[in-house]
Amino acid sequence: MATFTLPKNSKINPAGKVHKASGGRVKAFKIYRYDPDSGANPRYDRFEINLDECGPMVLDALFKIKNEIDPTLTFRRSCREGICGSCAMNINGKNGLACTTAIEDLKGEIRITPLPHMDVIKDLVPDFTHFYAQYASIRPWLQTVTPAPSGKERRQSPAQREKLDGLYECILCACCSTSCPSYWWNSDKFLGPAILLQAYRWLADSRDEMTGERLDALEDPFRLYRCHTIMNCANVCPKGLSPAKAIAETKKMMAERAI
After folding, report:
1. Does residue 169 contact residue 163 with C-beta atoms inside 8 Å?
2. Is the four-CA dihedral 82, 86, 90, 91 of positive or negative sign?
3. Which contiguous run of DSSP H or E holds residue 112?
4. Phi and psi (nearest 5°) for 7?
5. Is 213 in a helix, a strand, or coil?
6. How does residue 248 score in pLDDT terms, banded at 50, 70 and 90?
7. 78 close to 30: Cβ distance less than 8 angstroms
8. Which DSSP category does 96 fall into?
9. pLDDT at residue 150 greater than cutoff 90
10. pLDDT per position as a tens digit, 163-183
11. How many whole angstroms separate alpha carbon 202 and alpha carbon 208?
12. What is the DSSP string of 114-160?
């Protein structure tokens, strides 16, 4: 039987730090820590928080830890309203946004790690370089051949506009792509749920005139067809979208043009 082991510098150091709290409703947070500048292996630090002195969301707890206990804790955040996608992370084994995940909905000790299958820059901050390069590769903007109407926008009927619902709301948080086993195994070639949903957003747009070229760019054994519709992407999407459906619609367009 084959044996697989992590590289030495990836193994978790069991000697993490513990920060106790007293009084009130105490909740424990087990947080992944990694600082490449220190040369040390990753570890889990345990922080106890008095919930009576903390906001209701996981992001509130992270702010409390950073502001009052350990200022070296590093994580991304911006809007605090589930709009920007900056605070995407893995919380108790499920990807989500820290700003929209309520502490009271999580039982027991809360374990927080970076999004899976991404290089870690520091602590809870993953490297999005490859993800954004994949996004740029699909040319995510309106492409046309005919000139725009003089002094007017390119119009859509309400029915045409409705086809973009469930697509344009994507905030590129990468929760879906980093929940997808096919993306874990083939992220160098498979675009992943988030990028493929974005690709279909332009395929479904009645104003775009590059449908053939866009489909040509996806016509590859890996870029599109590594999706096996296990629905992890839809289960974790903080906006309630279904990348799997968008991928299926793209495959349908591929089949229809081949007939």
Report:
1. no
2. negative
3. strand 110-113
4. -55, 150
5. helix
6. very high
7. no
8. E
9. no
10. 999 999 999 999 999 999 999
11. 7
12. PPTTS-EEETTEE--HHHHHHHHHT--S---SSPPPTTS-----HHH
Per-residue tokens: 41: 């292996």
Looking at residue 172, its amino acid is L
pLDDT band of residue 14 (cuts 50, 70, 90) is confident
Name the pTM for this structure.
Answer: 0.93
Q: 246 φ, ψ to 5°?
A: -65, -40
Total count of residues recorded for the chain? 259
Q: Is 49 exposed, middle or buried (0-12, 13-18, 19+ CB in 10 A)?
A: buried
**What token pair was written down for 247?**
């991928």
Q: Tell me the two tokens of residue 130.
A: 């490859």
Cα–Cα distance for residue pair 100/154, rounded to 1 Å = 36
Tokens representing 106 are 């999580």
Q: Rounded CA gap, 38 and 223, in Å?
A: 37
Residue type for position 77:
R
